[in-house]
Write a structure and sequence with these properties.
Length: 346
């Protein structure tokens, strides 16, 4: 019989039902101390009868281990992030861990608040995918990492003060632009989101390319929310205006596949064919690039491998197997599909 009015069995109820102490119930559940067979069976019968479900968070506060790993992403409608998260979840679940997923929508302040909240909940570690640049620059994650293991997943492989799992976006971006240039494109528009180390890195490479090849055409288009589905609508609107202007390019480089989808929509809206009239190249190699029409040429960031590595290294950090700062940089590759063709004079 339950001793409280909530209708939810507690460990006290189980102990009372089985006629044992709370400590004995805990030992049976955690299987970390010898318990007599008949006593164990009484406890197990009581657990089943009362349908007892342990409060994982409360138990974690006592044991200083929750078997929960926090994951922070800037968006969920850009398939790049869910693909990495799914790989993280597969690895961690196989080792008895649960992930606690948080979406910041690219808001740096919310990102800090969610990180602090997870630290207070005593999660065992936090994986942050593409964090807000200011939270890397202002030392927030350096301070937070003194509380628990933190792994940053993004393209910033030059730092040594945090644990990083990175993908070589610099090489991938260069390969993408070189491919467009080999096809004869000189009028290349660069399309990016508002705030991200990844966007900044790609833009820097774009400007270097223009300088190295002495290209006169330069056009940078920014959308506020490049990592969420709403960004495709804004992309369409801005690219439509560009395509109908005297600044129309022969190719558009989009910083992710989600924005590339918006570009293709804009081309269709103004009556331009891809790749006959204009070439479009994306980034990330998400499912979107494979099912779009035409299929999108893009840069593969090996998202599953990134997620697996992040999860494996986090588990090592939790178990103190990796006491040094982690820095892993994974290769990228250009995936050539249907959305790019030879430059057309306009």
């Amino acid at each position: 019989m339950l001793k409280n009015d909530t209708g939810i069995a507690t460990i006290n109820d189980v102990a009372s039902e089985a006629g044992v102490s709370i400590t004995t119930v805990s030992r049976v559940m955690n299987n970390n101390y010898p318990v007599k067979k008949d006593t164990r069976e009484r406890v197990e019968r009581a657990i089943e009868k009362l349908n007892y479900k342990p409060n994982i968070i409360a138990r974690g506060l006592i044991m200083k281990k929750t078997s929960v790993i926090g994951v922070i992403v800037p968006g969920l409608t850009n398939l790049f992030f869910p693909t990495i998260v799914e790989a993280i979840e597969k690895v961690t679940r196989s080792k008895g861990y649960t992930i606690f997923l948080n979406n910041t929508s690219g808001n740096g302040q919310l990102e800090r608040e969610l990180t602090d909240k997870m630290i207070s909940m005593q999660v065992d570690g936090i994986i942050v995918i593409d964090p807000a640049p200011e939270n890397l620059d202002n030392g927030f994650y350096i301070e937070a990492s003194s509380e628990l293991p933190i792994i940053i997943v993004n393209a910033n492989s030059s730092r040594n003060d945090l644990n990083f799992i990175s993908y070589n976006e610099e090489i991938g971006t260069l390969e993408a632009f070189e491919y467009l240039i080999k096809l004869g494109h000189e009028k290349i528009t660069f399309l990016r989101g508002e705030s991200s180390f990844s966007y900044d890195l790609k833009e820097k490479i774009y400007l270097n390319i223009l300088d190295n090849y002495k290209f006169k055409y330069k056009e940078i288009v920014r959308v506020r929310h490049g990592n969420v589905i709403e960004g495709t609508t804004e992309t369409e609107e801005k690219i439509e205006k560009l395509l109908l202007s005297e600044r129309r390019p022969t190719a558009i480089f989009a910083c992710n596949d989600l924005m590339a989808i918006g570009v293709i929509g804009a081309c269709r809206n103004v009556g331009l064919k891809v790749p006959e009239d204009i070439s479009v190249i994306g980034f990330d190699n998400t499912l979107l690039s494979q099912i779009a029409y035409p299929k999108i040429t893009t840069v593969d960031l090996k998202m599953e491998s990134v997620g697996r590595k992040a999860a494996e290294k986090m588990l090592n950090l939790i178990e103190d197997e990796d006491s040094y700062k982690i820095k892993i940089v994974l290769d990228t590759s250009l995936v050539i599909r249907e959305s790019c063709g030879k430059a057309k004079n306009i």
